[in-house]
Amino acid sequence: MSDDHEPPQAEAPVESSDGETTELEYGCVVSWSGSQKTIHVPRDRWLEVGTELLADGWQMCVDVTSVDYSAYEPERDLPSSVTPERYEVVASFVSMTRRERIRARAQVPADDPSIDSLYAPYPGTDFLEREVYDLMGITFNGHPDLSRIVLPEHWQGHPLRKDFAIGSIPVQFKGAGTRSDS
Question: What is the 3-class SS of 62-109, one letter each residue?
Fold first, then answer.
């Protein structure tokens, strides 16, 4: 990859039926979070767009995470053309040559919490996807070893989901119940 890599040509904006103009990049709707560009990737194009990003000079996927928006409906920061779902998978990419970041967001439905894995183009997503699977219960199709990474194998449920029951674990501190007046 050369240092003179040019950023992609902006795609022609699309006008929706309500007259709103929508910016597109990689065939996805664009929004902005501060100065960072965000592309809203349809779930069925997640791997395809991730592969396009790598080919276009986004050398690193530095983070993959997820959000459960069930407690925040209907307040969502989404373009009107994006249909909100309960879960969202978010990935951040870096281009060293352009010195830029881009964020990708994909809506994931509660009745099928799965999305394609970015492991093939970005092997560094291995543990990131496993953590999302373990704590949120979103399955990454095509991941080579989708197993728990934080919680024990016998753990039931996914503790970052908003509907996960809050429990308690008794903690015994060293010296609890004894008092020293020295």
Answer: EEEEEEECCCCCCCCCCCCCCCCCCEEEEEEEEECCCCEEEEEEEEEC
- The CATH number of 11-141, from 3.30.460.80, 3.30.420.270, 3.90.226.10, 2.40.50.180, is 3.30.460.80
pLDDT at 1: 44
Per residue in 71-88, is it b (16+ CB within 10 Å) or e — as a string? eeeeeeebeeebeebbbb
Q: How far is CA 134 from CA 24, 128, 129, 144, 157, in A?
A: 33, 10, 9, 15, 9
* Angle (CA) 73 106 11, round 5°: 120
* Blockwise average pLDDT, block size 10, the chain, 182 residues: 49 54 89 93 98 98 96 81 95 96 98 98 98 97 96 91 79 66 55
Give the per-residue pLDDT at 2.
44
pLDDT at residue number 180: 59
Count CB neighbours of 55 within 10 A.
10
pTM listed for this prediction: 0.81
